[in-house]
Amino acid sequence: MTTTLPACPQCQSTYTYADGAQLICPECGHEWPAQAAEPAAEEARVIRDAVGNVLQDGDTVTVVKDLKVKGSSLVVKVGTKVKNIRLTDGDHDIDCKIDGVGAMGLKSAFVKKV
Prior knowledge:
The protein is mostly beta strands. The protein is built from 1 helix and 11 strands. It starts with 16 loop residues before the first strand and ends with a strand. The model has no long low-confidence stretch (mean pLDDT 87). Pfam families: YjdM, Zn_Ribbon_YjdM. It comes from Pelomonas caseinilytica.
């Protein structure tokens, strides 16, 4: 009896295999739960700001806390306006460009929608 396993969500490899309740890709090493492989991809992720407003691509936000820029002596000050954000998956769920700092990732917990 053959079973068809889904392709790897990161590299699209078809050589995935099951290890208990996990699916594993031998090419890129990505692991994900077997039950959440298909239904989770269909659900839309809602990203909210520090006060609970729903964020969308292209929104303008302001920073609610001084943020140190890793690997630099720069600081993004409270009240800094960030225009045209892009929402992403991961720990830092906002990609943006900040004047004087450049491109960086922000956590939605440290911004407020304007």
